[in-house]
User: Which sequence fits this backbone?
């Protein structure tokens, strides 16, 4: 018998309707994009060919979707079974996050009608980081569907199929740890090829994959705390703070490793001086650093770690820190040379917000109808 | 303990995936033996833009009209309909040609046909290719998904996407040798070199052009030199002109592995808008990292084996404890 239960409450609520409105606006511009081309709705140009559709929807968005990955590591690799109640909602959020990342990438794909070309082996360029990202993300979406399938099979009462799936699920869980390790590190490697266009404080060359995977993990753990805190409040469920506090401890270690790596790499590359030049990039770097240090300080103390409120603040800081690291590298301090500037257009922003709204709506509907959240008595 | 070992292997394998050794770094690619290219001598350029309009003619592209001007092509930069453009450097009163202070100078922007092209390295679908004989970098829209990684990976912002068309494509200079044009394969030269009245754009093999550029560096300023026009091997109608003060720098000899299109000038290249490049190509570093991690898929395979073992053991534990997976 499953330890999970559908909330079974009403799906159409005021927040749901608000999200639907955002989705409607985003959808309007989305249709326009596929009627008139990208130029009609976006501010993308010859120098900034990647805007928020790549940087938010894919680069940052998939890191937000690393909850399932972070928990799979904790529960199945490090055998911390007590975190099991958090796994299923995290896997659902990961599935939706990655699916929306793939969906968002479709808007950004200049030649969307030829998207299948990347799946044809005779086209593959094994030197390309983008190939690894594309194929690996696509594969991971399939794995997440399989990892989430038990919830669906339980709902429709397919006990036989569920039994078979449970027997082989370990293989998919293992892939579900391997694939994000691969493509999340590659999201960092994408920056290497951009060379001088990436600001020296973020252009760490060989170290890009390491820093990318560390931010993916920190964001993965933080999003689990974030989601769990919100379902506690939003769905009036009993608090899971005692469990989340344990994750807080893991995050302390991760941030410490990340900060040490970040600063040591900059020192090795002789770039520490750039932190204090006072220009835009140095200020963004310091802001990013602060956003990493605040949660570190918060989570170091067991008392603060065990308070839901401070724990949530730390998680939010971490999410901002990880996002800012990626935004800084790919967009804010990205400099293709003189003559180019970029700020996302309203339609561009609305399409992205629409995608996020859709993701939240599906999440809300699914936890209300499928057994995703853990039964209260276990929590 | 066996189980502990496997757990270690799993974690170790996964960590190795993201920490990178630099054991087998690949060096920059070398120029192909018979690479063709162009030499652009900024000091000879008079900004007439004959090359711009010839380029449009050869590539069947419309003139770009900006502002009220309807008389001539006024493209400011490369785009889906402009593969070659002449830009200007201006300082102060802009009176003296090729002077850094109070001067002006021209600069040609078009594909540099990198020896170690970032676009070719970054493209997931092999839609960007470097010709193994000529070294020309070509684009093949039939395989392109429009991810525009070529654009971000090009240090010169050369590949350009047609944002304003629903079914747009990437465009770039293919040295007048794309299917249907094939000027080079038929023994001809590029359109821009053919029409350049002063010999500022010169077509030839990379080797010969590099030698010519080096020769110009050794000339005494003020002495008269017979500048060839169009093609290095055509001695019939040279352009005689006093030698300017060249900077001792051949752009594209070494930058990021070198380019097949090289530039020389009297004004420093950073003033002409050229990017700050070092000798090592970004493509070579990206590929080294990628191939260290994914060499024969060995690391991912080891990591997967370890992870599978660990996950299997740990989900079995769950079952014994009466949990579910």
Assistant:
């Amino acid at each position: 018998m499953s330890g999970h239960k559908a909330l079974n409450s009403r799906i159409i609520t005021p927040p749901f309707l608000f999200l639907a409105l955002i989705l409607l606006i985003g959808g309007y511009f989305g249709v326009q994009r596929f009627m008139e081309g990208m130029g009609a709705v976006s501010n993308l140009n010859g120098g900034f060919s990647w805007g928020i559709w790549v940087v938010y929807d894919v680069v940052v968005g998939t890191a937000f979707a690393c909850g399932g990955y972070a928990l799979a590591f904790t529960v199945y690799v490090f055998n911390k079974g007590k975190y099991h109640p958090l796994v299923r909602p995290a896997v659902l959020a990961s599935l939706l996050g990655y699916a929306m990342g793939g969906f968002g990438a479709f808007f950004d794909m200049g030649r969307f009608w030829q998207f299948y070309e990347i799946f044809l082996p005779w086209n593959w360029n094994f030197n390309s980081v983008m190939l690894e990202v594309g194929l690996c993300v696509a594969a991971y979406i399939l794995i997440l569907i399989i990892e989430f399938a038990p919830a669906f099979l339980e709902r429709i009462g397919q006990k036989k199929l569920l039994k078979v799936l449970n027997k082989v699920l370990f293989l998919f869980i293992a892939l579900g740890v391997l694939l994000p390790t691969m493509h999340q590190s590659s999201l960092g490697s994408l920056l290497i090829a951009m060379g001088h266009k990436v600001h020296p404080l973020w252009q760490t060359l060989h170290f890009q994959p390491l820093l990318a995977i560390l931010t993916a993990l920190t964001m993965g753990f933080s999003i689990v705390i974030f989601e769990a805190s919100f379902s506690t409040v939003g769905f009036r469920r009993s608090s899971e703070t005692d469990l989340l506090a344990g994750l807080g401890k893991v995050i302390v270690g991760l941030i410490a490793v990340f900060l040490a790596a970040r600063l040591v790499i900059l020192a090795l590359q002789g770039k520490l001086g750039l932190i204090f030049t006072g220009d835009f990039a140095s200020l963004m770097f310091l802001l990013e650093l602060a956003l990493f240090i605040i949660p570190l300080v918060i989570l170091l103390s067991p008392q603060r770690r065990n308070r839901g409120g401070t724990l949530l603040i730390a998680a939010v800081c971490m999410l901002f820190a990880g996002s800012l690291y990626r935004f800084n590298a790919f967009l804010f301090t990205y400099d293709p040379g003189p003559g180019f500037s970029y700020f996302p257009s309203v339609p561009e922003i609305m399409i992205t917000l629409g995608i996020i709204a859709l993701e939240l709506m599906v999440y809300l509907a699914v936890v209300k109808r499928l057994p995703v959240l853990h039964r209260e008595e276990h929590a | 303990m066996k189980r502990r070992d496997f757990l270690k292997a799993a974690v170790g394998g996964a960590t190795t995936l993201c920490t990178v050794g630099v054991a087998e770094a690949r060096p920059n690619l070398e120029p192909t033996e018979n690479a063709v290219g162009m030499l652009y001598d900024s000091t000879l350029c008079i900004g007439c833009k004959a090359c711009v309009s010839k380029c449009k003619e050869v590539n069947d592209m419309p003139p770009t009209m900006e502002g009220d001007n309807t008389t001539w092509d006024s493209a400011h930069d490369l785009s889906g309909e402009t593969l070659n453009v002449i830009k200007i450097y201006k300082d102060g009163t802009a009176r003296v040609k090729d002077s850094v202070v109070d001067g002006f100078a021209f600069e040609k922007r078009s594909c540099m046909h990198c020896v170690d092209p970032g676009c070719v390295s970054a493209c997931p679908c092999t839609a960007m290719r470097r010709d193994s004989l000529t070294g020309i970098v070509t684009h093949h829209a039939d395989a392109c998904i429009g991810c525009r990684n070529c654009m971000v990976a090009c240090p010169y912002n050369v590949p350009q996407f047609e944002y304003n068309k629903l079914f747009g494509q990437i465009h770039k200079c293919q040295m007048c040798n794309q299917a249907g044009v094939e000027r080079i394969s038929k023994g001809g030269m590029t359109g821009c070199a053919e029409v350049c009245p002063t010999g500022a754009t010169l077509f030839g093999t990379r080797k010969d052009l590099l030698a010519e550029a080096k020769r110009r560096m050794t000339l005494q300023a003020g002495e008269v030199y017979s500048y060839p026009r169009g093609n290095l091997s055509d001695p019939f109608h040279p352009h005689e002109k006093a030698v300017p003060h060249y900077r001792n720098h051949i752009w594209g000899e070494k930058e990021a592995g070198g380019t097949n299109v090289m530039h020389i000038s009297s004004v420093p290249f950073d003033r002409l808008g050229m990017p700050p490049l070092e000798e090592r190509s970004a493509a070579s570093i990206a590929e080294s990292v990628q191939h260290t991690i994914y060499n024969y898929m060995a690391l991912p395979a080891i990591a997967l084996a370890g992870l599978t073992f660990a996950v299997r053991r740990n989900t079995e534990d769950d079952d014994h404890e009466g949990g579910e997976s």
